[in-house]
Amino acid sequence: MRSDQIRATFLDYFGGLDHLEVPPGPLVTDEPDLLFTNAGMVQFKPYFLGRTSPPRPRLMSAQRCVRTVDIDRIGLTDRHATAFEMLGNFAFADYFKREAMAWALELLTDGYGLERERLWMTVLRGDEESVDLWRSLGVPEGRIQRLGPDDNFWSMGVPGPSGPTSEIFYDRGPTVGRDGGPAVDSERFMELWNLVFMQYRRGDSDDEILGDLPGRHIDTGLGRDRLALVLQGVDNLQEVDVALPTLRAVREATGRDDDPAAHRLITDHLRAAVLLISEGVRPGNEGRSYVVRRLLRRAVRRLVLLGVDEPVLGPIADSVTEVTGEQVREVVEREERAFRRTLRAGNRLLDSELRRGPLSGETVFKLHDTFGFPVDLTVEIARESGVSVDTDGFARLMREHRERSRAGR
After folding, report:
1. Which of 208, 82, 105, 85 is nearest to 166 (CA)?
2. What CA–CA distance (Å, rounded) separates 373 from 300?
3. Side-chain half-sphere exposure of 83, counting CA atoms within 13 A
4. For residue range 119-157, what is the model confidence (pLDDT) as tens digits?
5. Distance CA 276, CA 291 (A)
6. What is the DSSP-derived secondary structure letter of residue 51?
7. Residue 298, Cβ neighbours under 10 Å: how many?
8. First vs last C-alpha separation in the chain
9. Which of 99, 108, 271, 328 has the fewest CB atoms within 10 Å distance of its CB?
10. How far is CA 158 from CA 200, 281, 289, in A?
11. Residue 409 — very low, low, confident or very high, per pLDDT cuts 50/70/90?
């Protein structure tokens, strides 16, 4: 089943259950504590908090999201991506746990044809109500696992609505990993759907619960791309139908097939950067702009390590079919050319210093100040070489540099 069919099946199902489809929110959110929309519920935060009323008690959406918290895992796991689509159904003081669970189970099995016997559920430890509900829906006790708040409590990562979760996983089989459920192997048992029982108002951390929300709400997120991985029988997110053209273009540009993790990283980072550029974000040194710059720089560096000496990301960007426009390609090409110059200038010093051992704060500062070498890339390269970095010394020199700059104004 293609990704667009997965989306249509979801929206048709919940449309039949009186959910109103709303357009996706902007990827570049106006939420002050977030750089990008990282979940389908972001645009609905005022409804969860009771500040405004939703147009209907039941809503649904297909939301593009960007998350950078797992950037170091890209290419190393099957299930992580920087940009992805989240399919969500939402209820505001309407239905609650039982309906959300029953409908998710029905859609996955009857709608998408997944084998019920390969589905596992997790719940927040102590939430026996959810355990009983899953059992009443025919899920055996042995396929329900109780986990801690790190796994089964959800928030935006900032003050706002939050609540316990129940997650649905699919067993990809013994060739992928160890048996024992999601608590044992999260590659074999891949999370597909997160059901959030939105009940609480979060403070500055998940440990700080300020009280109950005005009502009990439902917020769910079904990862379209992860479900596509399962339904299309591919091995990782970069091989699903929406990403495969870019992966193929990367392979063609490198002319190699001996480093699949690098190819997948380049594919992931370029796709995410292209989506953000199409939303008006340009590479830069701060905030959202730096995320785009960092993604492109990590992709360029992998290309260099694979022996690609000339700029190639511009033509590859054309393979990201979700967006169009010559301007996106031009931005990518300009950034790649600039960073390749930076790499050539700084690599000689960095390679020499890496051979000597730990990198001093002075070396890191020189790479940054003289060659424009970003500190996070220096740390990443040093880590790959097993060399430590004096980041505290670098931070001290940066503070002194800024103070001198201010004093000289």
Report:
1. 105
2. 13
3. 25
4. 999 999 999 999 999 999 999 999 999 999 999 998 877
5. 9
6. S
7. 24
8. 61
9. 99
10. 13, 22, 21
11. low
Q: How many CB atoms lie within 10 A of CB 79?
A: 18
Nearest-angstrom CA–CA distance, 352 and 215: 61
User: What gap in Å lies between CA 55 and CA 29, rounded to an integer?
Assistant: 20
How far out from the chain centre does Cα 342 lie?
28
Amino acid at 156: M
Angle at 238 between CA 233 and CA 243, to 5 degrees: 100
Query: Distances from the Cα of 268 to the Cαs of 38, 71, 113, 273, 324, in angstroms?
Result: 16, 10, 28, 9, 17
Chain position carrying tokens 């959030």:
196
In whole angstroms, what is the distance from residue 354 CA to residue 367 CA? Answer: 12
Question: What is the Cα–Cα distance from 83 to 65, expressed in whole angstroms?
Answer: 6
Place of tokens 């935006």: 156
Q: What is the pLDDT of residues 15-35, one digit of tens each?
A: 999 999 999 999 999 888 889
Q: Which fold is adopted by the domain 3-235?
A: BirA Bifunctional Protein; domain 2 (3.30.930)
Find, among 252, 267, 282, 281, the residue nearest to 317 by Cα: 267
* Residue type, position 168, single letter: I
CA distance linking residue 395 with residue 195, whole number of Å: 41
Tokens 């979940």, residue located: 39
Torsion of CA 71, 73, 79, 82, to 10 degrees: 10
Burial class (CB in 10 A: 0-12, 13-18, 19+), 208: exposed
Q: Among the residues of 286-356, which ranges form H helices?
A: 287-305, 313-317, 326-356
Burial 128-150 (b: 16+ CB within 10 A, else e): eebbebbeeeebeeebbbbbeee
CA 373 to each of CA 362, 363, 378, 397, 398: distance values in angstroms, whole numbers, following the listed order: 13, 11, 7, 15, 14
Mean pLDDT of the chain: 93
Domain ranges of the chain: 3-235, 243-344, 357-409
CB-based contacts of 179: which residues, under 8 Å, 6+ apart? 185, 188
- Residues 219 and 275: their CA atoms lie apart, in Å, by 25
Sort 159 into a burial class: Cβ within 10 Å, 0-12 / 13-18 / 19+.
middle
Which amino acid belongs to residue 42? V
Say how far residue 381 (Cα) sits from the centre of its chain.
Answer: 23
Other beta carbons within 10 Å of 117: 10
Interval 178-197 mean pLDDT:
97
